[in-house]
Design goal:
This protein is of the alpha/beta class. It is built from 9 helices and 15 strands. The strands form 3 sheets. Strands 3, 4, 5, 6, 7, 14 and 15 form a 7-stranded mixed sheet that branches. Strands 10-9-8-11-12-13 form a 6-stranded parallel sheet, with helices on both faces. Strands 1-2 form a two-stranded antiparallel sheet. Helix 2 (about 130-145) packs across helix 3 (about 165-170) and helix 2 (about 130-145) packs across helix 8 (about 285-300). The protein is globular, with a radius of gyration of 20 Å. The structure holds NADP nicotinamide-adenine-dinucleotide phosphate. NADP nicotinamide-adenine-dinucleotide phosphate binds next to helix 2, helix 6 and helix 9.
């Protein structure tokens, strides 16, 4: 069955951002909707994800993934419904998630998308707690951070998409949790996510508050932000501490990253610092998805979505997220299911 709508609105990279991104770095264009070939599906986008890593893809700097070219659709995880299928495993109406980009329609290999289980309510959970951000929290904390009951776990970016989940998994593991976030509202959010202590890194007494909040030092530091916030946490490490380098969002818009880490600290504290990528754990996504979905169903993991309406507003949502305006997982709603 051929789809009737022939145009595909897309958000593309118009210019490589210099420093903080601006409106003119993005363009909204229209292209023809593609036809799925053998083994492919045509997906109509319902939601797109807004994530800090997209800033790295816009730059030419060497990274773990290929940079976008000018004119490319902005890469993103998206949730959509299959409208045509040439893959026997998927049928029209199925909900799927995949790396489909900021566009209304995408043609993808059937094997490159994941079917969203019907029991996931709302299905957008597949873009956060039971999707990439949840997996990031799960593998980063449990595999890299290796928390033990009674450990003090500090999380930066604690009110954000990954951070809101890390703290709750750490509580489930029997840890004491300290969330660091920007401003009083985000600190209130941290307490809703069960953090034992919430600390505002924008407050003048940040370092003193951190000292008071971690009287027994820090056993696991889950680092989402880097920079001065992390320098403050490094000063409170315990012997044997594990520093999980998940992200460094405070550095993404700087021409030169700030040198705030001193390797000698690893000697003093016999500490381990390790970076990781969630995609390295692709072979274990099913394990994490089952546990994360169960924790959500039991009410052990709470979450919040920060929804922007309209594909054309995705760049604004992205820039707002980099400024810290999102309260929870930043998402853009593109269309209604079955519409
Ligand atoms: N390693 C992986 O595989 C992987 C996968 C997914 C995500 N990540 C990383 O995880 C981190 C969190 O991602 P997310 O999707 O959960 O985003 P998020 O936390 O929902 O949103 C980004 C947040 O970063 C904070 N921020 C911005 N500038 C900052 C600064 N200068 N200093 C401190 N905080 C700042 C803001 O929160 P405040 O209002 O609190 O400042 C903002 O809300 C990012 O670094 C991302 O790159 C890594």
């Amino acid at each position: 069955m051929a789809v009737l709508v022939k145009t595909n609105r897309r958000v593309t990279l118009a210019a490589r951002p210099e420093g903080f991104p601006k409106d003119s770095d993005f363009a909204l264009d229209e292209a023809e909707v593609g036809e799925p070939g053998p083994g492919e599906v045509l997906v109509r986008t319902l939601w797109v994800s807004v994530d800090p890593y997209q800033r790295g893809r816009m730059s030419e700097a060497r990274s773990y993934a290929k940079s976008l070219e000018l004119g490319d659709v902005i890469t993103s995880q998206s949730l959509g419904e299959v409208v045509e299928s040439q893959d026997a495993r998927l049928s029209p109406g199925d909900l799927v998630v995949g790396q489909l980009g900021w566009q209304e329609y995408a043609v993808a290999r059937g094997g490159s998308v994941r079917r969203v289980p019907e029991f996931l309510d709302p299905p957008t959970l597949a873009l956060h707690v039971v999707g990439m951000t949840g997996m990031t929290a799960y593998f980063g904390l449990l595999d890299v951070g290796q928390p033990k009951p009674g450990d003090t776990v500090v999380v930066s970016g604690a009110a954000g998409a990954v951070g809101q989940i890390v703290g709750q998994i750490a509580k489930l593991m029997g840890c004491r949790t300290i969330g660091i976030a920007g401003g009083p509202d985000k600190c209130t959010d941290c307490t809703l996510y069960g953090y034992d202590v919430a600390i505002d890194y924008k407050a003048a007494d940040f370092r003193n508050a951190l000292k008071a909040g971690c009287p027994d030092g820090v056993d696991v530091y889950f680092d989402n932000v880097g920079g001065e916030v992390s320098a403050g946490v490094h000063a409170r490490l315990n012997v044997g501490a594990r520093i999980v380098i998940c992200g460094q969002v405070s550095q993404y818009n700087l021409e030169r990253p700030e040198p705030t880490f001193h390797p000698g600290l690893l000697i003093v504290h016999r500490a381990r610092m390790e970076g990781f990528l969630v995609t390295d754990y692709a072979h274990r996504y099913d394990e994490a998805a089952v546990r994360l979905a169960r924790w959500v169903a039991e009410g052990s993991i709470r979450w919040r979505e920060d929804v922007t309406e309209g594909l054309e507003n995705a760049p604004a949502a992205f820039m707002g997220m980099l400024r810290g305006e999102n309260r929870g997982k930043a998402l853009v709603k593109v269309a209604e299911r079955g519409g």
